[in-house]
Amino acid sequence: MTTLDSFTLLQPYKIAEETFVIPWALEAPPVGHFPMNSMVIRGAEPILVDTGAPAVRAQWLEAAWSVVDPLDVRWIFLTHDDRDHAGNLLAVLAECPNATLLTTWFSIGRMAEEWDTPINRCRFMTDGDTIDAGDRTLVAKRPPLYDNPTTRALFDPKTNVLWAVDTFATNVPAPMPETAAMSPDEFRDGQLFGGRLVSPWVALLDAQKFGTVVTDFQHLNAEVIAGCHCPVLRGPQIPEAYDLLRRLPEVPPWTEFTQADLDQWMAAAESSVPPEQPRPSGT
User: Fold this and answer.
1) Which residues form the Metallo-beta-lactamase domain (predicted)?
2) Which stretches in the chain have pLDDT values below 50?
3) pLDDT (tens digit, 9 = 90+) per residue, 28-60?
4) Three-state SS across the chain?
5) Helix, strand, coil abundance in the chain, percent, nearest 5
6) Comparing C-alpha atoms, which of 184, 159, 178 is closest to residue 243?
7) Which of 176, 162, 190, 161 shows the shortest CA–CA distance to 231?
8) Range of the domain at 36
9) Between vectors from CA 246 to CA 189 and to CA 205, what angle results, nearest 5°?
10) Rounded to whole angstroms, how far apart are CA atoms 227 and 185?
11) What CATH number has the domain bearing residue 28?
12) Is residue 39 part of a domain?
C-alpha cells in the first residue's frame, strides 16, 4: 500500500494485483483538493480505465507507459466522455494500435463535437455487459451517482476492485492515495459534499428507490473501491461510504459559491500581494 509519504501525483501506485491508479489532483480553494484519477489493469490483456486529463497529457502518458507497454494494451474502457476521463483518448488510441475502445453509442456522438472517434476500433459496452480480458471477466455497471448520462463503472471480480467513476467523489485536505488518511469528519463531510457537487439532482430522488439502486451496486461486494475523484476506499470505509450515499436524497442541497464569494476571495488575494517597490531613479 502506498503511504502518504511516498505518494506523488502522476506516479502510479498499486492498489491490488496487477491494478494501478494514476493519481492527479486539482487544487480547489477553499475546499482543498479534488482527485482526478485513472486506472490501469495490467493482466493478460491490459486495460486502461479512462485516459486522464489533457492538462497533463505528456505526464499522464509517461505514467501510463511506465506500468504497461502501449503496444500490449488490448482494451480502453472509457467510463464517459467528460474531459477529465476522455481528454487523452486520441493520443492513447494512436499509441495503442492493438487496443479496442469500450464505449457507448451516445459517448461517440457527444465526442463528435470535438473529434471523430474511429468507430471501427470501438465495441459498445453498456450496463450489465461483460468483457473477457483473458485472465478476468470485467463487468460494466451504471453507478448510483454520475454527472454524465453515458457513465458506466467497471468491476473486476478477480481482484474485487471497483472503479466507481464519480460516485464517492470527495474533496481532500491534500492529495492522498487512500481515504484512510482522512479523519472521520473529513471522510463523512467529503462524501456528503462530493456527492451533492457531482450529482445535484440527487436532492430530487425518492430515498427508498435510490436506496435500492445503491444496494444493487453494493452487492458487487467490492473489497477495493477506486474512482476518478476519490482516494482508494477499503475495509470499514466501504460500507460507511454506502451508508452516506443512501443519505444524500435527504441532505439539503449544497449551496453554490456566489459572486459575493468570488469578490471576497479576490479582495483577500489583492490584500496579500506586497506593494510594488519603487523603481531606482534613472531606470
Assistant:
1) 35-196
2) 282-283
3) 999 999 999 999 999 999 999 999 999 999 999
4) CCCCCCCCCCCCEEEECCEEEECCEEECCCCCEEECCEEEECCCCCEEECCCCHHHHHHHHHHHHHHCCHHHCCEEECCCCCHHHHCCHHHHHHHCCCCEEEECHHHHHHHCCCCCCCHHHEEECCCCCEEECCCCEEEEECCCCCCCCCCCEEEECCCCEEECCCCCCCCECCCCCEHHHCCHHHHHHHHHHHHHHHCHHHHHCCHHHHHHHHHHHHCCCCCEEEECCEEEEECCHHHHHHHHHHHHHHCCCCCCCCHHHHHHHHHHHHHHCCCCCCCCCCC
5) 35, 20, 45
6) 184
7) 176
8) 13-272
9) 110
10) 20
11) 3.60.15.10
12) yes
Looking at the domain assignment, is residue 131 inside a domain? yes
pLDDT tens-digit profile of 83-96? 898 999 999 999 99
- Contact predicate 259/203, CB 8 Å: no
Domain assignment present for 124? yes
In a domain, 2, yes or no: no
| Collapsed DSSP state (helix, strand, coil) of residue 200 | helix
At residue 244, the 3 state secondary structure works out as helix
Q: What residue type is assigned to position 86 of the chain?
A: A
